[in-house]
Amino acid sequence: SIVRSWDVWSPGNGQIEGLDWGSLNPSAGVYNWVGLDAWIADSKAHNAQMVYTFGDIPAWVYAEPTVAQAMIDFQTFVTDIVEQANGAIKYWEGLNEIDASGIPPAIAVQMQEIIYNTVHSLDPGGLVLSPTVSSAGADGEFAQFLADGGGNYFDIAALHGYGNSTGEGIATTVQDMQAMLAEYGLQNKPIWDTEWGLWGQTNLTATQQEAFVSTGLIVQAAAGVQTEIFYAYDNANSALYDTATGQLTAAGVAYQQTEQWLTGAT
Length: 266
Prior knowledge:
This protein is of the alpha/beta class. Helix content is 43%, strand content 14%. Helix 8 links the parallel strand 7 (157-160) and strand 8 (191-196).
């Protein structure tokens, strides 16, 4: 199994500890690794691979007088978190949804280069995922990121499979990503969908949620997406797991059954 850090709250010390940059590094030179360490320990205990996602730039970094200084701050954070993980985290994902964050693609390229070079320098076994955009793989922000040279700095292309009202709709998102990567000579890069699911599909009946989840898993697997990370298993109104009852939802049962169908299948 595989888990992703984005929006995870890790109860390492009885408190809610966020794992984003702003939570881990609330001021220059100050770190709180409690949540990260607890998340790593819990993931390892369940034999789960981990994806750490960069994002949520701290306010103190935005207050820096120059972009160059902010890049120095980012370099320091990336170095420190990779060293803190000490090889436990295999996958490092670029900025979460650059189109929603307001970070220009050219700046995202600079930050992605820092992630890529730092991970490969400090942890030869680590792999770097691209940044993401909030929905379709053809989003102009990601296209501009590639045009600005971002394709040089990731091992795996990551997308978010939102923006469709049926499970079948995700096929277009994947095809758009594949076409975009091919345009820049990156057609051999593996593709992961690091965030997709029932988010925003609150009007679907339980039966429709079952169909959405099962179809989405199958279509992406058939299209060649190597890894699909559902967002999020315990989300209110769009979950695989009901925290109130302690049981899988109807969509969760569909997910479990479809995973069994797909495991080892061609």
